């Protein structure tokens, strides 16, 4: 009490005045934010008015309908009522149009709208401004620069490297199943696909599957995939400053450090090789350069080399995309074949007749397994590795049915729902490889496991080759069946994952 009495009255008055000013400014800011919220919501309501949607709360959007980890399943429940598209409200002033109609897909993918910053911006601390996140002229330059890395002359020798990585994984399985015949696929396959991309795209000379150093990178990628998705869906996590102070923000920062440490080491080792004049001369003599060679030797239009920041962004992007999407694809394909033993056996017989007992697969074999390829495509239809991508409309758009959207609306291309849309695919939940039999007719944009248009997956041929190699060699050595006690639950993350893992019973063939 005596302390306050000793403070001069003028000082107390000054403090009170400052507090009043702060209170007034806070009130003004609050009113501004409320007005901003209201005006943006009204704009969204008007822009999306031609597209009916399920009832939503003015503040919480559809969050009550979309329970945690059930987003894919909820979309499928609403297909009949909204067969082309519907607005999905995340919260009161954040909505996008979710699209799962092939004509809508064709209209959007035929344009050059940029990636959504709201959706993809949260990936930037992890993978930087690489090919996935770039837009406009910068994207075009990088795409043109990297396209030669996926020329078929480059891809041909990769088949042997892929096969080597798969065989190492299968050798580990053979030892493992003597103790427990049930395996969780995703981590094993992720290590194998990381091993493959390291050897093929980054000229790595050793197998990372035989050590423990890369497990932390795989785990970091899994954590980041979950954290990025949860951040997109949380209104309070949109601001970078606030997010960094949360437990999730700190976890994401730590996971990014682990991922960057891995890619920095890859770049450092390759740069060290390039200091060797003999190695540099060997690279110059190559008719086609691999991915990392292209990055390190690249010259932009102004004659400058890629900055260290751009270099690491592309390495981070392809390190992630080159192993995580293919790991998802392979894991779900093997699960689908385990669930359908007759199709699995037909694939096995085709592969045995092609390869015999040698288990040596080459580039020429990849086009000689039509039934296996049909099964792979059907599994990719049911379990697309990248379930959703998004765009922001750079100009107004009108769809074939006459409905339209203005510039600035975010459009989510939901490939998973497209692939399960009964208007597009009859009995979509049935595994039927003959949908992809030679001569079968389908809409050009009904099947999009690697997206479409100018921004389709640059590595789709690389990925398909790896899927074929992994499936063929696995079926030659093992019989796969599901674990009835652990049925996988598909969840939408950056790639399609399972909430509870993908467990299979693995039996060695004699």
Automatic annotation (TrEMBL):
InterPro entries: Cyt_P450, Cyt_P450_CS, Cyt_P450_E_grp-I, Cyt_P450_sf, Cytochrome_P450_Monoox
GO biological process terms on file: lipid metabolic process
Residues binding heme: 457
GO molecular function, a single term: oxidoreductase activity, acting on paired donors, with incorporation or reduction of molecular oxygen, reduced flavin or flavoprotein as one donor, and incorporation of one atom of oxygen
GO cellular component: endoplasmic reticulum membrane
Source taxon at top rank: Eukaryota
Principal cellular location given in the protein's record: endoplasmic reticulum
TM regions (residue ranges): 12-32
Record PROSITE patterns: CYTOCHROME_P450
Location relative to the cell: Endoplasmic reticulum membrane
Pfam families: p450
Keywords recorded for this protein, A-Z: Endoplasmic reticulum, Heme, Iron, Membrane, Metal-binding, Monooxygenase, Oxidoreductase, Transmembrane, Transmembrane helix
Cofactor section: heme
Family label: Belongs to the cytochrome P450 family.
Name used for this protein in its record: Cytochrome P450 4A11-like
Gene (UniProt): LOC102824801
